[in-house]
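Example (one chain per record):
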Amino acid sequence: MTSLDHGKFTRVTTVFHSLLALDVFLLFFSGYAIMFNDELWWLVEALGGSMGVIAVHRVAGLGLITLTVFWMTLLIITPGGRDNFGTVLPGRDDVEAAIQDVKFALGYADERHPNARQFAGYKADEVPLLSYVGKGVVWIFAVELTLLMISGLLIWSKTGIISLFTTKASAMAFVAFHGFLGIVMLMGVMFHIFEHGTHPAFYPVEMKAFLPKDITPEYHAEDEDHDTTGIEDLELSPTWNWAVNLFGLMVVIGIVSVLVGSIFDETYPIPRELTVGGGPTNLLLTIGINVGILVLFIGLVLSMYGNVMRRRYERQLAEERRATTAADGGETSDD
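Predicted structure:
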């Protein structure tokens, strides 16, 4: 392990990240089973039919609200939470990094800004845990999830806010807005899965989101002093090349299919009056939407795999500690 693998999250954050990922996946599976009920009829049946899939979506929605309230409370009442909030706030260096990145891409700068460097041959303590791109992702996800929760609650409680739905057009707009946010969120999550599942240094899954920083080692050999992150010493997995190309193609197909399907499918999120067609228009579109759902399933599997690897590593550390204690003449305990 190189200094690429500096710990990013606390133990509470890693658990929260896994729970949030599971809940978002359930929202996607149930929400898109409702949205594309023709193309994803098998998913509707797997989630308990028309009533079951709605129940799953509502329970997952309440779970998202619960997790959000918990996390906001943690940010307010704990010193670590307030520090984490301060970490994701954009600063002057982030603006300068974004501007210099644009200049670098256009050929007007010789190198990227230090705050934009991630795993580019620099030590972990020389680059920020979150670049301006990472902070942007956090804020985009936070805003999208907040708007999804608010719009979802309003749609669920139409009778309680009837004044907001005084016309059919306003009701259609509210439902379409919720669906549109879901599509944007889907594209972001698909790219997030691709980014962290196919990184050449961490393939098949980046462990930073699962391994707490208090047990993350910095190097394979502690007696080695690396001048850089050690990325130049890493070798690509034999399966990485074809896996990244295949998975990248699946992500593109899934995103394009969902975008096209949302226009051609009727009633949700696009109202029937605004649709181009109605129902699945052809076999290719149906296959494409199912490919998008497959990408989400892969993301769920990778999330589970990351937690399994974390648990295995924790057991390995515990066994090493017991072996060291026994070698020193101490007593070992299974507690």
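Caption: DSSP finds nine helices and no strands in the chain.
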